[in-house]
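chain below, 139 aa
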Amino acid sequence: MTEKVLIVDDDEAFRRILAERMRNRQLEVQTASSAAEALELIEKETFDAVLLDLMMPEMDGIEALKRMLEKRPETQVIFLTGHPSVSQGVEAMKLGALDFIPKPVDVNELTEKIRQARAGRLLFVEKKNREKLKRLLGE
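prediction:
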């Protein structure tokens, strides 16, 4: 099964190029130009990984991460940023981000992180399903 990825970045050229490079690695890719657009997509669809720009107008990546995890706690977010800072990276990881990668990204490294994200999402969903089944069975 192919990994499904959502790329969220306000830089249209970066979004397009990264999407093309991910598709060349046989990943299913959708893109969003804003956090608000990404939140709408997340309500409708499930993604194995969300590649999220940290610095965007209107809503930054940290706020977007919080809202994504409220809607879908299993969401695996990998931050991509052209302006990395240790404090932002620490905050992102504390809030539940899978990783924090500076731009320009190494596509091979990113592809591996996406595979890890998929595995993490599947484990999260499996755990929640087991908990639900135990409750239904009264265990």
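The longest strand covers residues 4-8. The chain has five helices and five strands.
thats it, cya
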